[in-house]
Every structure is written in C-alpha cells, then in structure tokens.
Amino acid sequence: MRRSSWQDGVLGTNCPIPPRWNWTYHFQVKDQIGSFYYFPSLNFQKASGGYGGFIINNRAVISVPFPQPDGDIVITIGDWYIRNHTALRKTLNGGQLLGMPDGVLINGKGPYRYNDTLVPVGIDHETINVDPGKTYRIRVHNVGVSTSLNFRIQGHNLLMAETEGTYTVMSNFTSLDIHVGQSYSFLLYTDQNASTDYYIVASARFVNQSEWSRVTGVGILQYSNSKGKASGPLPDPPNDQYDKTFSMQQARSIRTNGSASGARPNPQGSFHYGQINVTDFYLIKNEPPVRIGDHLKTALNRLSFLQPKTPIRLADWYNLKGVYKADFPNKPLTSAPKVDTSIINGTYKGFMEIVLQNNDTKVQSYHLDGYAFFVVGMDFGDWTENSRGQYNKWDGIVRSTVQVYPGAWTAILISLDNVGVWNLRTENLDYLHLGQETYIKVVNPDISASNKTENPLPDNVLYCGALAHMQVPQAAATLATGSPFVLLAMVLISAFVPYINL
C-alpha cells in the first residue's frame, strides 16, 4: 500500500462498507512481488471465509532466482470452528475464550477420510492435480483464526523460495510451521513414482497433546498417472507438539536471498540495514487476557485498543481533535491495564526497532500494514539490551508477519519511509477482537512535499463517525477510475471492509 493507507481496509483508515454497497480499491503494486492474501477485517468475519490468495509476479525483465515453474498453486490452510463468526464473537464478548478449534480446512474444504474414526463420511476434501516430472510453485497461506499449523506433503520435500514478498535462501523442509497470517511459497518437484496419491497435511501445533490429531486438515496430491488412493499413516509432524525450540530454530534458519532481485532489477541485499542508526525504540509486551471493568480484554503494554468511531487518518485529514492520542508508551506500563485509543507517533524516514515480548502461553503472530520489516532476532526469556548482541544484521528475512513464541521475544527493524497510518496488530483473531493492536502514524513534516509522499483522499472515500453527515447515498457516489498510476482495482460488494494483506 505504497503512499496510500486510504486503501488499507482497516478501521484506523477506512469506514466500513455498508451492507449492499460496493467500494473499489486502487493501489500500486510496483514496489513488491510475492505471495499474499486478502480477507475481511471486521467483526470476526474472517472466520467465515471471504479470503483468497493474491499473487504479484515479477516483471518480465526481472528474472526469478530459480527456473520458471511449470505451474502455480495456491493453498490456504486454517483452523475452523463449527460455530459461525457471530457465535465466536459472542463467546469472546461474553468473557470466554474460544478453546480448541473443531478442525483444519485446506482451501476451504474438510479433511480427506484418512481415518474412519476421526473423519465422518461425506466430507468434501481438496484434491490438487499435478503431472509427473514437473516443478510447481505452491503458495501456502495460514488464513485461520488463531492456530499455528505444520504443513507437509507425504513423500515430498518443500524447497522454500519466498515469503511475503522476499526471496529466501533456498532450503529444503520436510515440514514447516506456518503461523497465523503467514505466507510462504515452495518449489515442489513431482518426482515420485505415483504408485498412489499422496497426503497433503496441515496439523495443529502447540495444542492439547491428547486431542491434536483430530485437529488435522488433509488433502490429496494426485499425480495424473496415479495408480491408487493415498494410504498408510499421515506423514509425521515434528516429534513433540509442544517443541517450541525446534520451531524457533526452523524460523531462525529462514534468511533473505541477497543475490536475488525483487520488484526492481537490483539485489534485495543491497540495503545494509545493520548499519543504520535506530531512531525510535519500542518494547511492546502482551500478556494473557485480563478483565478490564466487566469485559475480557487483551492489551499491548497494558493498553487495550479502543476503535475510534472516526478513522484516524480521516480525522487527521479534517483536523478533528480528540479522536485518538499519539502517546503509546515505548515500554510496558506498570499501572493497571486500561482501554484507550493510543497510537505510536513514528518518525518519517526514521528507523524503528520494535521488540515484541510474549508473556502469554500461546504463540502470537504480529502483522504491520504498509511495510515489510527485517526480522533480526528471536529467543526465549525476557529481552534485554544485551539481546542485541545476537541480532542478525546481514541477511535477516524481510516479511510483514512474524511469530513470537510463548515466554519469548522477537525483534524487528522498520524503515519508516511509507507515509500514512498503519495498523500493528496480532493476527490471532480472538486476541485482536479483544484489543491487541495499535497503529503507527508516519507523517512527512515537509508540508510542501506531502502530495508526493502520500496520495490524496480518494474520490470514493466513505464517511462515518463524526463525519457521517458528509456521506452521499451509494447511488450518487462516484467510483474513481482510470488513474494512470493504478495497476489493480477490486470491487467488493459486501457488508464489511476487506483488507488486502500487502
């Protein structure tokens, strides 16, 4: 969303799309390539679907760092509850956590009947058809509610190639933990003998040991010359469902391919982030859910985010006061948790270090809109000043969603070159609903250059909150079209604001 937080589709920047209205998103994609996905961002609606893969390809003049695959396959994996999204929201609003999911979906479909006891008859499962002797690029997205998943394909290795817009040092995995909101692409070689079909598996990680096997999504990889159905046990997950050390070591091994070109014809590694002085530092800690007044809440630095009725960016444009406070603390508060609309005031062209400290018992995923950041370190225990000594200052992976393990920290570095108001949030949908988010505001102090660093208010802007009186009826609204910088537009007819995860 370069220069255009107006198109971000979250409450801090956009008013919700009213029921039976439509809204067109316009945004540039020239500055990035890779595997992303879109989804609805309001009222737990992501749990009911509405998501899908989003691919941005290299320009023809820029080569990818591997032979061109024979095919491209998108796979969405995610935990699933029998209760619908309104019931899930009601559970949380009533002060109860969601508990174990009821299953895992692959491309929106239930598991293959690999076990007659665990899987009832009549469930439609995903089948992916491939030809022998080919290379496929498979793009895997964890689009679920709140569960980390281990992804694997029976009899096949996964050669990692890219994650969320960055080509990686290519490494083979037999399985990979993919946390909520994360995206990866792998090269899959169809080099097996096709005596049978093969299982595709996404199984829950870090859940109750006695029940995890039923929280397993299973699909089928089917060769065109297959001689029979998949059989035998599912391919093994990591040995210990609670082995966070194994998972962290796996995550640390993912590095940026500094010799590959990205969206532009220059190596990704030419940006020497380890030599840049940090201008802003934030230690952001989450803790287990707590009661604030009569409500169950989650918080960052003991502040549970209260959504303003008027979007933050819209309030700035019209000089409205009192909508939010730019006073988010740079370290955890020692006072009692409270509800507030407090955001981070970033420094334009500054270099921000954020340490995410997870003092809860479950894995957290964090996403920052509008940016890709450098993941420079993660470890167990509490972060200290001495922790910087173990940072990777050379080839840390660049991505937009990162996990933080229980009782551990993750450090990221961000070059604040994208003007706007950008959401920093947990991707764990239950904790997000309860308030575990904030925003980073980045403003160009040079007013004369502001129209060069941020796009103006879009013609089809929606108004709500204190500005609701400015909204014209849908029939009279004019949708912006035809601007020469627009490379992509989506028209979504919906009752929610979809968010394009870029």
From TrEMBL:
<keyword id="KW-0325">Glycoprotein</keyword>
<keyword id="KW-1133">Transmembrane helix</keyword>
<feature type="domain" description="Plastocyanin-like">
    <location>
        <begin position="310"/>
        <end position="445"/>
    </location>
</feature>
<dbReference type="GO" id="GO:0005507">
    <property type="term" value="F:copper ion binding"/>
</dbReference>
<dbReference type="Pfam" id="PF07732">
    <property type="entry name" value="Cu-oxidase_3"/>
</dbReference>
<dbReference type="InterPro" id="IPR011707">
    <property type="entry name" value="Cu-oxidase-like_N"/>
</dbReference>
<dbReference type="GO" id="GO:0005886">
    <property type="term" value="C:plasma membrane"/>
</dbReference>
<dbReference type="InterPro" id="IPR045087">
    <property type="entry name" value="Cu-oxidase_fam"/>
</dbReference>
<dbReference type="Pfam" id="PF07731">
    <property type="entry name" value="Cu-oxidase_2"/>
</dbReference>
<dbReference type="InterPro" id="IPR008972">
    <property type="entry name" value="Cupredoxin"/>
</dbReference>
<dbReference type="GO" id="GO:0016491">
    <property type="term" value="F:oxidoreductase activity"/>
</dbReference>
<feature type="domain" description="Plastocyanin-like">
    <location>
        <begin position="72"/>
        <end position="226"/>
    </location>
</feature>
<keyword id="KW-0472">Membrane</keyword>
<comment type="similarity">
    <text>Belongs to the multicopper oxidase family.</text>
</comment>
<protein>
    <recommendedName>
        <fullName>Monocopper oxidase-like protein SKU5</fullName>
    </recommendedName>
</protein>
<feature type="transmembrane region" description="Helical">
    <location>
        <begin position="479"/>
        <end position="500"/>
    </location>
</feature>
<dbReference type="InterPro" id="IPR011706">
    <property type="entry name" value="Cu-oxidase_C"/>
</dbReference>
<dbReference type="Pfam" id="PF00394">
    <property type="entry name" value="Cu-oxidase"/>
</dbReference>
<feature type="domain" description="Plastocyanin-like">
    <location>
        <begin position="2"/>
        <end position="59"/>
    </location>
</feature>
<keyword id="KW-0812">Transmembrane</keyword>
<dbReference type="InterPro" id="IPR001117">
    <property type="entry name" value="Cu-oxidase_2nd"/>
</dbReference>
